[in-house]
Write a structure and sequence with these properties.
This protein is mainly alpha-helical. The protein contains 10 helices and 4 strands; from the N terminus they run βαβααααβαβαααα.
Length: about 220
């Protein structure tokens, strides 16, 4: 079961209620384990996307270009679109978004994961920008979680596990947590849209479009 360990529901709009706390979630996880849940996948945030899920930047220009595809899909999408398109409000929104994660991204959910891990006997999986072998190793060996899940870092480097196996602690061109992959996903193929990670825009587009010509499994 994937669960928001702490909601931080007021990270963007301070007048909102904070939402579920880690103590409440620990109690819920204990009940769920008794009811047969065989693993927990620990995340954060009362919505998606959320400043802590996935933690990182929020590319406002790309967001405005692509958000229209989601206008009919949520309760507050029209309000959000209005904010994103008006500079004083989008600037404030972006500031609160970046401020919420406090500059700490990789392993951001480990404290909550560790609290749940101490309370249950089933495996606990943690998400949160993982892309450094030594950080993952420490998270596992210290008992903060039993496994980590990786999304954006594999979008940026789909051979990340092979790099770890070859002895690299991190990919030569790591994920920048820009979240351009996220905001483009509504309209465009899944891929890394951070030009600074590529030698040219053409190379970036070629990598993105390669999803239509997948290499055979070996």
């Amino acid at each position: 079961m994937k669960i928001s360990a702490t909601d931080y529901n007021n990270d963007l709009f301070p007048w909102e209620h904070k939402g579920t706390t880690i103590d409440e979630t620990v109690q819920v996880c204990e009940w769920l384990e008794q009811d047969g849940v065989d693993a927990f996948h620990v995340s954060a945030g009362s919505m998606f996307p959320h400043p802590r899920n996935p933690a990182g930047d929020l590319p406002m220009d790309a967001l405005v270009q692509n958000y229209g595809a989601m206008l009919s899909s949520g309760a507050h999408t029209h309000r959000n679109h209005w904010i994103f398109r008006r500079r004083p409000f989008r600037t404030l929104f972006h500031w609160r978004w970046v401020r919420a994660h406090g500059g700490h991204i990789e392993g951001i959910n480990l404290p909550d994961s560790a609290a749940i891990r101490r309370a249950v006997s089933v495996p606990v999986i943690c998400t949160g920008g993982f892309q450094t072998a030594s950080i993952i190793r420490e998270a596992l060996s210290s008992g903060q979680c039993d496994a980590v899940s990786i999304a954006r870092s594999l979008v940026a480097n789909n051979d990340l596990v092979k790099l770890f196996a070859a002895g690299h602690d991190r990919a030569p061109e790591p994920c920048t947590y820009c979240n351009k992959c996220l905001v483009n996903a509504a309209n465009n193929p899944l891929g890394c849209y951070e030009e600074s990670r590529f030698a040219s825009r053409e190379e970036m587009i070629g990598e993105i479009m390669s999803v239509f010509e997948p290499r055979p499994f070996r």
